[in-house]
Amino acid sequence: MDQNRLSLIALHFIPGIGDYIIRQLVSYCGSAEKVFKTPKGKLVKIPGVGEVTAAVISKGNPFRAAENEILIAEKEGVQLLLYTDKNYPARLRQIPDAPSLLYTKGNIDFDIAKAVAIVGTRMSTDYGKNCVEELVAGLIPHEALIISGLAYGIDIQAHKQALRNNLPTIGVMGSGIDCIYPAVHKEIAKKMLSIGGIMTENPFGTKPDAHNFPARNRIIAGLCDALIVVEAAQSGGALITADIANSYNKDVFAFPGNIGRSYSAGCNNLIKSNKANLITSVKDLEYVMNWDANGQEQNKKMKFTLDDYGPDEQTILKVLLDNNNQMIIDELSWRSALPVNQLASLLLGLEFKGVISTLPGKIYKLKKP
User: Is CATH 3.90.70.10 what the domain over 306-366 is classified as, yes or no?
Assistant: First the structure.
């Protein structure tokens, strides 16, 4: 295996180092391989890297663990996706806390045109199940990817209905990819592999501990274009996912419920507080998302000519076009090979020209006519 790739995987097996620090280390050192060759005195000068972390990197030897993880992945037919890989999900690249390593299994197309996440209570009622059934059936013309968390209730209903309607579906897990949870959903997960699959950011053998699930929810929110909440109590994972999706500037929807039912309170409050669009059928989703009833996205193509812009501006626009039309500035700098200071000036110019817009979190997005 390429030594730099091995080194990047190895960074994930150093205790106390998360996705942000890994990106910082690679960015400042030039490559993952160089991180392990950088003296401790220089490591401590990297923002976010203190004495303790630098010492762990200098003394640590995580390569055996990384090599073992790679061998298991090959044996189990699991793909390891690094954030530097070209086929890393473009939608996830847009979020600032995206996982730097993903484990995926199945036949997953992350570049599919439309992706809808469906989440909700584990104690779903017939009403909630019917909402999911009708919604997924309405998404057939759009050939949408259905994303959920493989949990009891609304999640597994979303996966089942996707399979029933021959729509691709992904289950995002809060455990290792070899630990299907709950175990009774193993057969559904197996069926999903042929038309979608399962994924996680957790190493092999990770148990479905409670603290893994809020982190899992950010992946669900990051992978979708629209998040649909179907039955949610006053608090819980579905509402956490909705809050995360809102912070990522995703379109959030909620089915209204009976005001006397506890599992409607969360959805009703999302709508009441303007944190979610009210949805009663797929037509509401189509209207807000600007999808027509025949499944074709309106104004899909950008109506500008690259030749009208300078070389560096063209580079920026091409990167955005190749990555779901939007990207955070740090990622854009890396992809375009333009220094952040120079890039910021160019982006301001493109904004004045009306071709891009700025979103919260230093995200830049191509405008549609």
Answer: no
